Amino acid sequence: LAKTTQPISMDSYEGQEVNITCSHNNIATNDYITWYQQFPSQGPRFIIQGYKTKVTNEVASLFIPADRKSSTLSLPRVSLSDTAVYYCLVGLSTLGRLYFGRGTQLTVWP
Amino acid sequence: ETGVTQTPRHLVMGMTNKKSLKCEQHLGHNAMYWYKQSAKKPLELMFVYNFKEQTENNSVPSRFSPECPNSSHLFLHLHTLQPEDSALYLCASSPPDQAQYFGPGTRLTVT
Lengths: 110, 111
Fold this sequence. Notes:
A: 4-stranded antiparallel sheet, B: mainly beta, 7-stranded mixed sheet, 4-stranded antiparallel sheet
C-alpha cells in the first residue's frame, strides 16, 4: 500500500499561488496520483489526477517528476473558499489500494 | 453535485437498532466504495465493490453489512452498533482504477 507524506498544514493569502508537495517513495508502476479537496462534514471532491509529467485543468496543475516519488499540487490565485483539507492519494482504486492519510489543512487568509 | 447521492444525510440510532444507509450513482461507474471518517481521523476504506462483486473488506466488524444489488446502488446495513461507530460514512464510485467521486455522506450518531 503506497503511503503518502504531506505537510500537516499550510497558510496562504488570497491571490497567492499555493504549492502542496506530497512524497510517495514506494509508488508502484501502475499507480496513479490523485488529489482531493475536502470541506468539513462533506465528501472529498476530486481535483486532479496524473501519472507523469504535468497535468492541468481549470482549477489546478499537477507536477510529477520523472521518478514519480513525489508530486506537487499547484493552486493558482487562491481565495478564501479554497480553505480546506487537501489529500494526495497514490494507488489503484478498485483494488482498494488507496490511502488517504491526514491530508494538508490549507488556510487562506484575507 | 458529484452525481453520487446518499440517504439519509443524518441518522441517530440506538445500539439495538437496525438501519441501512443508501448510496446511488447514475454515472455509469462500475466500482463503488464505503468509507468511514471519524472525527479528526483519516478516511478509512471499508468495502470495495467492482461490477457488483465485493473485492475488498478491510477487516470491518460484522455489525456492518454491505449490499450491492446492482452497479448503481450500494447499501450499508447497520445493526447493534457501538458509540465508537459514530462517524461520517461516505460512499464513492469510480470507473475502473480512475478517480473516485464521493457523495455528501451520512452523519451517523450511535447513542
